[in-house]
Design brief:
Layout (H helix, E strand, L loop, with lengths): L5 H27 L7 H15 L9 H5 L2 H9 L6 H20 L10 H11 L1 H7 L6 H17 L1 H5 L5 H18 L4 H4 L3 H12 L8 H29 L11 H24 L2 H16 L6 H13 L1 H9 L5 H10 L8 H13 L1 H6 L4 H11 L6 H23 L7 H11 L5 H16 L3 H25 L9 H21 L4 H21 L4 H17 L1 H4 L3 H14 L3 H14 L6 H18 L3 H6 L1 H17 L1 H6 L3 H10 L6 H17 L3 H10 L14 H30 L5 H14 L1 H13 L3 H4 L2 H11 L4 H16 L1
Length: 822
């Protein structure tokens, strides 16, 4: 494989730029001398070559005005009628328009319908619409698609010009015809073709909403925006009316293959985004009127009308945040939502597709139902039925999520009996349908149960919570009593049953957190003997340990004040399990606990004991490079935990005496390819070094970053004190650390990791500039010369690194990375 250095690339580019004038003259001469009579293969190569030279853009002195008079463009337009040349000819036109757009973006020229290139290209391109309409989309699929793509690319390139089209009659006429053409494309019965118009609508929205690219006075900008919207609003609302009809649930959806089904669903989502943009530009009220008309039309279709109604619900779900925001701000789009909630109960035995969309609709508009609780009774009934085993998996999932949202937003109404069903009935039903739900939906349903219990009166919460906890944990306790264990392992079915019960309990606690920490901690405390038994019997089962840790985290998160009283016991039990069989879930719990209690001096002795137990147990597993590859999750959570200690309580980390052990393990893992684990190691080193900055180093970096703060690293202790504590270890282990970091930059690690490597190296340079000179030169000396560069290039890199400028150092390291990868 030929490796081209960046210098050779620059020289080649310079040569091509110098030759551009002659090449374009040659292109013109070939047209004049009769390329029209050449074989089609030659014409195709000619058009491809023209596209290639266009890609050099304005760097080669090329301009859109020059292209407007060049024979190659006329030849490309004439070639659109030749099937064999259609693709390259369309590419030429699209590239020419892209160049004109690039000029406008960079202030090299203004783009308007009077521009010579647009005058030349737009009429013949948009005349293709009639040709496409006459073609058979099935038999001539590729040709139709490329022509439609050309129409859409052309429209997208001139979207800004279209947005300004209301300024004078001729431009307004052209702009309207382009918008009309895009509406026509969006209406195409082939969904994959209709999707091609979506980028145009987005770009038109951007230019209508932000009319002045280079800013301007606020008053001028507002006036220009209002002028454009006054012209385009009727056109956009026509598009809304069409889109609400176009996204009706496809009649042949069940017969589609996976690719066609995905295309149809993606189009529906993209159409929702377009309608959302129009809502933002116009108003919820105007869009609501169009949706209301579609609902009327759907009701007039009888039984088949559900497809169109489902499309309206789907669109309203996509724009729910905008609708709810408008309601909160005092607008009145309420009639539309009232109609939807009135129509839903009238549909007898709704199809699964409608049922699923209705559940998502209820989920999105749960905040609305809190203030319009008259519809809540139907919604709760529909949700409960939707979670039943007769529903499809997607329907059940949507219903479980809707129940969770309703419980969170409308729980107080349900608790007071205002939803036609009691909390006890809902919870009983949830427990009965849990076996039919997948794991994710089980969690949503149990969270809903917790949220509902949290809405009871303080006198009722204790009894209801205890009753629910007993119902969840009694089967777990019974299974633990009968499970046969061998060296911390149990039978598969028993383990699965135990994990399911503990996961349900964790989800219930998460929902119950709304009631306050006391309720959560009371249940956690009552359940803790069962958790201890699970740890004591099944310490080698990772799924069980993760489930126990999940319960611990839910109690910690929702009852931090109360949990502190049991924290030392929980952490002590965690040590025991971790010493027997380390799992990353144990480390993740400590990571969360440090974030909660790290700045609390009362917890420091507990954390110090934890580090003294955890670090040796972890580094004994991560003893060589291969062990890092075999345990990437353990590595990731271990170093993330250490970084959290550095951020919240670095004194605890240093006082535990585990820095050198952790530092050495980090060096061993620096060649790990696993992205998240590798990033965790690099973040650990960067956190350690940057937390050690003194006031001078912080000030220097602030100047380099032009005063921009980096919130990732807070200084919890005096940087000078921390620097003094880590210095002996850094001076001892600095050479191998820098060696690994430089090798990573020079190609041992993926390019995506270079930014993190550079951050660690520049932080080290700021802390230890003099030792780093020797360490860096030593590391560079073992890099292959083809990567390290010539002696002159190496010396230039060293001068950049030792200059004291972070920007120069980063530039030098990125150049080294580039040489290794080109």
């Amino acid at each position: 494989e030929l490796k081209v250095t960046s210098e050779r690339q620059r020289q080649l580019e310079k040569t091509l730029i110098n030759a551009a004038s002659d090449v374009w003259q040659a292109f013109g001469n070939w047209c004049v001398k009769g390329i029209g009579h050449a074989p089609e293969a030659v014409k195709e190569h000619y058009l491809v070559a023209v596209v290639g030279w266009m890609k050099m853009g304005t760097r080669s002195g090329l301009s859109s005005h020059f292209l407007a008079t060049h024979p190659a463009i006329t030849f490309a337009l004439n070639s659109l009628s030749t099937p064999a040349l259609l693709m390259p000819a369309a590419d030429v036109i699209a590239s020419a328009l892209q160049l004109a757009q690039e000029e406008a973006v960079h202030g090299l020229g203004d783009l308007a319908f009077e521009h010579p290139l647009l005058t030349l290209l737009l009429p013949p391109v948009f005349n293709l619409r009639e040709k496409v309409a006459q073609m058979d989309a099935e038999e001539e699929h590729d040709t139709v698609k490329r022509l439609i793509v050309l129409l859409c690319e052309t429209s997208e390139a001139v979207a800004e010009v279209v947005a300004k089209a209301s300024q004078e009659p001729n431009a307004a006429s052209i702009g309207s015809s382009i918008v009309d053409c895009m509406v026509w494309v969006t209406q195409h019965k082939q969904t994959e073709f209709a999707r091609e118009a979506m980028p145009f609508w987005y770009h038109l929205y951007c230019h209508l909403d932000r009319p002045m690219r280079d800013g301007g006075r606020e008053e001028e900008t507002r006036e220009e925006r209002e002028r454009r919207l006054a012209f385009f609003t009727p056109l956009l609302l026509q598009l809304v009316s069409f889109l609400f009809r176009r996204v009706e649930y496809p009649e042949d959806m069940d017969d589609m293959d996976d690719e066609d089904r995905d295309t149809a669903m993606e189009f529906r989502k993209e159409a929702g985004e377009v309608i959302g943009d129009i809502v933002y530009l116009c108003s919820v009220e105007e869009v609501s009127k169009r949706a209301d008309e579609v609902i009327d039309e759907s009701l007039g279709k009888g039984e088949s009308g559900w497809r169109m109604f489902e499309g309206v619900l789907f669109m309203l779900e996509r724009i729910s945040q905008l609708v709810l925001r408008a309601i909160n701000e005092g607008s009145q789009p309420l009639r539309l939502l009232e109609r939807c909630f009135e129509v839903l109960p009238t549909i007898v035995s709704p199809p699964e597709a409608l049922g699923e969309t209705a559940m998502i609709f209820v989920d999105c508009y749960a905040p609305y139902l809190y203030y319009n609780s008259g519809y809540l009774s139907y919604c709760m009934k529909a949700v409960i039925e939707g979670m039943g085993e007769r529903s499809s998996a997607k329907h059940r999932s949507a219903a479980a999520n809707a129940l969770k949202r309703l419980s969170g937003k409308c729980g107080s109404i349900i608790a007071s009996g205002g939803a036609g069903v009691s909390i006890e009935e809902v919870i009983g039903y949830v427990q009965s349908v849990l076996p039919t739900l997948n794991k994710k939906d089980e969690k949503a349903a149990m969270e809903a149960a917790g949220l509902l219990v949290a809405c009871l009166s303080p006198e009722q919460i204790g009894g209801a919570g205890t009753s629910m906890a007993n119902a969840i944990l009694s089967p777990v306790d019974k299974t633990l009593s009968s499970v046969h264990c061998n060296e911390g392992k149990g039978e598969e079915n028993s383990v699965k049953h135990i994990c399911g019960g503990l996961d349900h309990f964790a989800a219930f606690l998460e929902g119950l957190g709304k009631a306050g920490g006391a309720s959560v901690f009371h249940l956690f405390q009552s359940a803790y003997p069962i958790l201890q038994r699970a740890c004591g019997q099944l310490w080698a089962e990772e799924d069980v340990m993760e489930a126990v840790a999940r319960v611990d985290r839910m109690a910690l998160r929702n009852a931090p004040k109360e949990f502190m009283t049991a924290f030392s016991i929980v952490l002590s039990d965690l040590y025991k399990c971790y010493s027997l069989r380390p799992f990353s879930c144990h480390l993740y719990f400590v990571h969360n606990a440090v974030g909660e209690y790290g700045k609390n001096a009362e917890s420091h002795s507990i954390f110090e004991g934890a580090l003294k137990a955890i670090v040796p147990a972890t580094t004994s597993i991560l003893s060589d490079e291969n062990s890092f590859t075999g345990h990437p999750e353990l590595c990731e959570d271990f170093f993330q935990m250490l970084s959290r200690f550095i951020r919240f309580c670095p004194g605890v980390f240093l006082g535990s005496g585990t820095l050198k052990e952790s530092f050495t393990a980090g060096i061993r893992g620096l060649k790990l390819f696993h992205r998240d684990a590798s990033c965790a190691i690099l973040f650990f080193f960067e956190s350690l070094f940057r937390a050690s900055y003194t006031g001078d180093e912080v000030a220097e970096e602030a100047v380099e970053r032009e005063g921009k703060e980096d919130g990732s690293f807070g200084q919890s202790v005096n940087g000078a004190v921390l620097k003094a504590q880590i210095e002996p270890i850094v001076l001892e282990l600095g050479p191998p650390l820098v060696q690994r970091l430089v090798e990573g930059v020079a190609g041992d690690l993926p390019s995506s990791r270079v930014g993190d490597l550079v951050a660690v190296l520049t932080a080290l340079f700021r802390l230890y500039p003099e030792p780093m000179q020797a360490w860096f030169r030593g590391a560079l000396s073992v890099i292959p010369p083809t990567v390290a560069g010539t002696p002159e290039e190496q010396e230039e890199l060293c001068s950049q690194m030792f200059s004291g400028s972070m920007r120069l150092a980063e530039r030098g390291l990125y150049d080294l990375s580039h040489r290794a990868r080109v």
